[in-house]
Amino acid sequence: MRAAVVTTFGGPEAVEVVETGVPEPGAREVRIKVAATALNPVDAGVRSGVFGRAGRRIGLGWDVAGTVDATGAATAWRAGDEVVALDHGPVKSLGAHAEYVVVPADAVAKAPETVDAVHAATLPLNALTAAQALDLLGLQRGQSLLVTGAAGAVGGFAVQLAARDGLVVTALAREEDEELVRSLGAARFTTGAVGPGSVDAVLDAAVLGEAAQAWVRDGGAYAGVIPQAAPAPVRGVRTGAVEVSADGARLAELVRLVDEGALTLRVAETYALDDAAKAHARLAEGGVRGRLVLVP
After folding, report:
1. I need a surface site. Which of 44, 110, 185, 274 has the fewest CB within 10 A?
2. Mean pLDDT in the chain?
3. What is the mean pLDDT of residues 199-220?
4. In the predicted model, what is the mean pLDDT of residues 90-108?
């Protein structure tokens, strides 16, 4: 099968599409024939060496939409099931940017019925990150939340999920994105700093760090999206950063919201798997609204 990997770190040119063996599922695992797989900033981080481990092949890709092709023992999934899944982990010999991927059975959820595989592939990583970051904040209905990077993939899901949960959401994004983020459920919009201590919590998808923390009231909460990168607590502000985990049950809840029309899946462009390096180059240019999706 073909798979996108890196063997040396660098820019988009470091991405190679290689021929390799089809992986076999073990107990409590399933193999998915990949129909579509999203490209995320974490893949660029792996490619450029953020996570280290030079001198070995590293597979790219976390998001997958496709069809169960084979299963190991002790799983309820069956060949032919249409599914989505999170292939968790930045350092692995093969990832979801491939024709087939093996994942734990409990990382899998039934695919949405209302969208195609290309759109479904944009759901797992970013929606789970947003949902788990909101869990970390632990806010109650009626409290105020500022989402930085609200027009991005994680930020957009966070706005929708938070608004659905009854939070009063302020979206921080570029001026040209105001209509978009308001359509996602933001009650308020800003292009820059808000008043110090003016919100109950911040979900910092734009990774502004201490600048975003300053907008939280004393005793509020801050959640970042890069593990171990949250600012130190000050003024009683509880700080943390989500380390996304694969969770098939939670992913199934998010799929249900997609099918109910409560979550919007945004695709910017699609690329053939063989053009993975071109997709990385486009991601590096910035300004992408929605996800770039690879189609094997």
Report:
1. 274
2. 96
3. 97
4. 97
3.20.20.370, 3.40.50.360, 3.40.225.10, 3.40.50.720: which CATH number matches 126-241? 3.40.50.720
Q: How confident is the model at residue 287 (pLDDT cuts 50, 70, 90)?
A: confident
Residue 199: closest CA among 213, 222, 217: 217
Continuous segment of H or E residues that includes residue 56: none
- Give the CATH number of domain 2-123+265-295; options: 3.40.640.10, 3.40.50.10490, 3.90.180.10, 3.40.50.920: 3.90.180.10
Q: Which amino acid is at 86?
A: L
Sign of CA dihedral 45, 50, 54, 56: negative
- Give the tens place of pLDDT for each residue, 146-204: 999 999 999 999 999 999 999 999 999 999 999 999 999 999 999 987 899 999 999 99
User: Start-end ranges of CATH 3.90.180.10 in the chain?
Assistant: 2-123+265-295
Task: State the DSSP string of 261-290.
Answer: T-S---EEEEEEGGGHHHHHHHHHH----S
Look at residues 237, 214, 239 and name the one whose alpha carbon lies nearest to residue 229.
Answer: 239
- The number of angstroms, rounded, from the C-alpha of 181 to the middle of its chain's C-alpha atoms is 18
pLDDT of 274 over the 90 cut: yes
Distance, in Å, from the CA atom of 33 to the CA atom of 69, rounded to the nearest integer, reads 6
| 251 φψ region: left (φ > 0), alpha (ψ -120 to 50), beta (else) | alpha
| For residue 54, pLDDT beyond 70 | no
Could you tell me the pTM of the whole model?
0.97
For the purposes of burial, counting CB atoms within 10 Å of the CB of 258, is it exposed (0-12), middle (13-18) or buried (19 or more)? buried
